[in-house]
Amino acid sequence: MIVSVHFADLGARSVRGILRERPQPGDVPGLRHAQTLLTGAVAAGPPKLRPGRAALLAAWEDDAALDRFLAESPLARRLAGGWQVRLQPVRVSGSWRSMPIEAEPGAALDEEDEPVAVLTLGQLRLRRALPFLRANSRAAGRAAADPALVASVALARPPRFVGTFSIWRSVSAMRHYAYGSARPEHTEVVREHQEQPFHHEAAFIRCRPYGSRGLLEGRDPLAVPAPPRHAPRTGP
User: Fold this and answer.
1) CB burial string 67-84: b at 16+ within 10 A, e below
2) CA–CA separation, 221 vs 230, rounded Å?
3) DSSP-assigned beta bridge partners for residue 65
4) Where are the domains of the chain?
5) Which of 60, 97, 159, 205 could bridge 119 with an S-S bond, Cβ 3.0-4.6 Å?
């Protein structure tokens, strides 16, 4: 299976229309799950929504299914002026029942200096919203200041869904941010969540990014680091 992430700057009114659209697996061949989302900045402080930018997060049986969607779907055409990227999941922590993500057996990022994309998904416990926002502000501020962070977007669908999408220059740099003792903010957030969960359900998905198209903030984030050496195997 593969995951695709799509971003497009459409204007606030058009984004509201996009949020009412949600492709259904029964209607789109090869689609496992899809969700249209609001976007914002990964940064310290209160949430910073970007009301004119929409996102689509989807999981597919294979590249051929995504290709058909891109060629035939009106929603895909509305998002075509933005940026999209295909992701091969290589490691999954936690679970997301509505979008069961599977890492291909034996999948791994081959090189420590290979670019890596990370998805975080959370179904927020509303009574834990303020502690989550405080903890997330610390970790997000540190991530945003990290020179190895190539691109990042906050994802949301009120009232409960919160997430992030990020691309890191290398696997080793992402690990240094997440687990390095000199930058404990992310580790502290993980510990707080383990002690008293912020979310009903949460998943952390590490992916190999490939097959990007278009521009995000005027550039293709994958053109900054060296591209992945291998595209994933798809299909049977």
Assistant:
1) ebbbeebebbebbeebbb
2) 18
3) none
4) 2-213
5) 205
Confidence category of residue 139, pLDDT binned at 50, 70, 90: confident
For residue 81, give Cα distances in angstroms to 6, 8, 20. 10, 6, 19
What gap in Å lies between CA 42 and CA 206, rounded to an integer? 18
- List 156's β-bridge partners, or say none: 38, 162
DSSP 48: E
Helix (H) or strand (E) holding 59: strand 48-60
pLDDT tens-place string over residues 59-91: 999 999 999 999 999 999 999 999 999 999 999
CATH number of 2-213: 3.30.70.100
- For residues 121 and 200, the answer to whether their CB atoms sit within 8 Å is no
Higher pLDDT, 163 or 230: 163
| pLDDT over 50 at 222, yes or no | yes
Residue 80 tokens, joined: 């075509």
CB-CB contact of 211 with 231 (8 Å) = yes
Beta strands in the chain (DSSP E): 2-9, 31-41, 48-60, 83-94, 116-124, 149-157, 161-168, 199-214
Q: Above 80 in pLDDT, residue 231?
A: no
Return the bridge partners of 5, or none.
Answer: 57, 85
Amino acid at 177: Y
